[in-house]
Specification:
The complex is a heterodimer. Helices cover 85% and strands 0% of the residues of chain A. Chain A is mainly α. In chain A, α3 (33-68) runs antiparallel to α4 (74-106). The longest helix of chain A is centred in the middle third of the chain and has 36 residues, at 33-68. Chain A is elongated and about 65 Å long. Helix content of chain B is 43%, strand content 23%. A two-stranded antiparallel ribbon of chain B has the order 1-2. In chain B, α1 (12-40) packs antiparallel against α2. The two termini of chain B are 30 Å apart. Classes of the chains: A mainly alpha, B alpha+beta. The A-B interface holds A 45, 48-49, 52-53, 73, 75-76, 78-80, 82-83, 86-87, 89-90, 93, 96-97 and B 1, 9-11, 14-15, 18-19, 21-22, 25-26, 29, 132, 135, 139, 142-143, 146, 149-150.
């Protein structure tokens, strides 16, 4: 199967764990309330995107069955699979960027 | 998936081209099915429903329009509007031995021209392939754009 769908569970868990760690770290560093306020729209937008990607992947799982039942055409499922894979790749890229930024900050000499 | 509005889905814009092309794939598939039906029935002299020879059918397309965004109606793709019958006259062949021949020995054959159907099939398959290329290209574009961030 498409790697995006296959890695769905692991990738999403890793992404959520990474976000959680970063939240905890920024909180422990005593970030001001104002800057926390500023990150909220991005955070919620990211969460929505991850949820949408996740929903899209879940929908794809159901599509396989619909093809086998003759309710859908194969090209439709193929396009949906590509869509899910790209959604997942997008979420993964954002996660990688976040982790890179975090590592960059941790490497800074105080 | 094609009837979804672009609102509320953050990545919908990215996948818009793919969804439109996917709807075109569906429509072209129906068109190809219609051509298959026409070719298969090219010698059907009596339909069980009408008693007449088979009438050639054609698929007509119409756009799927979604909600208004910024005063412009979303174009979400195309779908088959209806299957219309071709009213052109039947082919007349003199063959008194045919079971469906009339008193003067003339048999009516369907108004299907296999050459024309084949030409239609070529254009339908090319349209299908074109939409497949659009899906493929949209995917590659998004993939390449994501690689920018790496």
């Amino acid at each position: 199967m498409v790697n995006g769908v296959e890695r769905n569970g692991a990738g999403r868990a890793a992404l959520e764990a990474a976000l959680e760690r970063m939240r905890a770290r920024t909180a422990s560093m005593g970030e001001s309330a104002q800057s926390a306020e500023q990150t909220t729209p991005f955070k919620s937008a990211l969460a929505t995107t991850v949820q949408k990607a996740d929903a899209s992947i879940e929908r794809t799982e159901g599509l396989h069955l619909e093809v086998l039942q003759g309710k859908l055409d194969i090209h439709e499922v193929a396009a949906q699979l590509k869509e899910s894979e790209l959604s997942f790749q997008f979420a993964l890229t954002v996660r990688n960027k976040l982790i890179d930024a975090y590592r960059e900050v941790m490497r800074m000499t105080v | 998936m094609n009837t979804e509005s672009l609102k509320g889905d953050p990545l919908a814009r990215t996948f818009r081209g793919m969804r439109i092309a996917s709807s075109a794939l569906n429509a072209e598939r129906v068109r190809i099915d219609t051509i298959a039906k026409n070719v298969a029935n090219a010698r059907t002299t009596r339909m069980p429903t009408t008693g007449e020879p088979y009438r050639r059918e054609m698929a007509s397309f119409r756009p799927i329009l979604g909600d208004l965004t910024d005063g412009v109606q979303d174009f979400l793709g195309i779908r088959v509007d209806e299957i219309v019958s071709d009213d052109s006259p039947f082919e007349q062949v003199y063959d008194p031995s045919h079971p469906d021949a009339d008193e003067s020995g003339v048999v009516l054959y369907p108004n299907v021209n296999t050459m024309k159907e084949m030409a239609d099939l070529v254009t339908a398959v090319r349209s299908y392939e074109a939409s497949l290329t659009v899906v493929d290209t949209t995917e590659r574009m998004a993939d390449r754009a994501l690689r920018l961030a790496e």
